[in-house]
């Protein structure tokens, strides 16, 4: 057990957090998507400690967070379409999986030995301030124990990882609320969607001048992006999806105006106005609330499969998947 320090958003706190990271310790940092558990991506020991703190299977590679394009280019090749996507969406909730540059200074534990690296420039000023101070890429998976709900508030991190990490930087609630969209671009410039997320796939396709984007589905054997694994992001209770109304004993998670089904008393509505951006921002917070209330049977209203609805439904399907 270590004492986990809760740090505010001041310059002094950022300096302290950067010093911890440079010393190989782990710090949870806010990003615009979810809180990330950051460690120095060039330090094998720090990266190994991330896997250990999360209890994450070591075959599951991590995203390297960088502060600008120069830092990105020092690590990965940027085939034409990758440059276009970076120009359009960075800083922001897009992760690119790109060919690793020979000799790139990054721990092989970050890529889990793959010839590619997942990389992104986050938009959150605290994340950016931290990476700039450390001056090295930061490996950062979502700051939750493996298989559990992603954290969108500092308190979620303290609840899940307190006692196992050096500090949590408190930046308030995350604006986007679901993880970044992951797109792989190969050396020939072909793009594939590996995970729906904070930027709708349709916007990625439009930027590439395509009608749509191929999505690589996990088939259980050759998992390419293990965030694709089923039973991820799960609350403790069971989930029933596309439920137009709750059954007896179920707690209802609503979406849109639902004339009392969500029960105004419980306030468990992703977005009473039916707004997908608001629903994404509320998704993990409300799953944490369901856990805190000990809800064991949860019914979830239908969510449209458009825009951010794709990422929301993806997380809900994984949360509802059978667990072992
Ligand atoms: O919004 C986000 O992306 C957050 C914040 C903290 O940046 N991070 C996040 O990290 O969601 P994590 O570790 O929970 O998810 C990273 C995903 C995993 O599904 C992993 O398998 C995939 O990225 N990934 C990482 N490197 C990869 C690679 N080289 N090829 C394919 N998938 C990769
Ligand atoms: Mg995660």
Automatic annotation (TrEMBL):
Keyword vocabulary terms for this entry: ATP-binding, Cytoplasm, Nucleotide-binding, Nucleotidyltransferase, Transferase, tRNA processing
Record-listed E.C. numbers: 2.7.7.87
Major place of residence: cytoplasm
GO cellular component, one term: cytoplasm
Pfam families membership: Sua5_C (PF03481), Sua5_yciO_yrdC (PF01300)
Membrane spanning residue stretches: none
A GO biological-process term: tRNA processing
tRNA processing among keywords: yes
Binding site for ATP: 56, 60, 116, 150, 195, 233
Recorded catalytic activity of this chain's protein: L-threonine + hydrogencarbonate + ATP = L-threonylcarbamoyladenylate + diphosphate + H2O
InterPro entries to which the protein is assigned, alphabetical: DHBP_synth_RibB-like_a/b_dom, Sua5-like_dom, Sua5/YwlC_C, Sua5_C, T(6)A37_SUA5, TC-AMP_synthase_SUA5
Top-rank taxon: Bacteria
Binding residues annotated for L-threonine, in chain numbering: 33, 65, 120, 140, 142, 180
Cellular compartments annotated: Cytoplasm
Gene3D superfamilies: DHBP synthase (3.90.870.10), Threonylcarbamoyl-AMP synthase, C-terminal domain (3.40.50.11030)
Record-level Gene Ontology MF annotations: ATP binding; double-stranded RNA binding; L-threonylcarbamoyladenylate synthase; tRNA binding
Function: Required for the formation of a threonylcarbamoyl group on adenosine at position 37 (t(6)A37) in tRNAs that read codons beginning with adenine.
Family recorded in the similarity comment: Belongs to the SUA5 family.
Entry protein name: Threonylcarbamoyl-AMP synthase
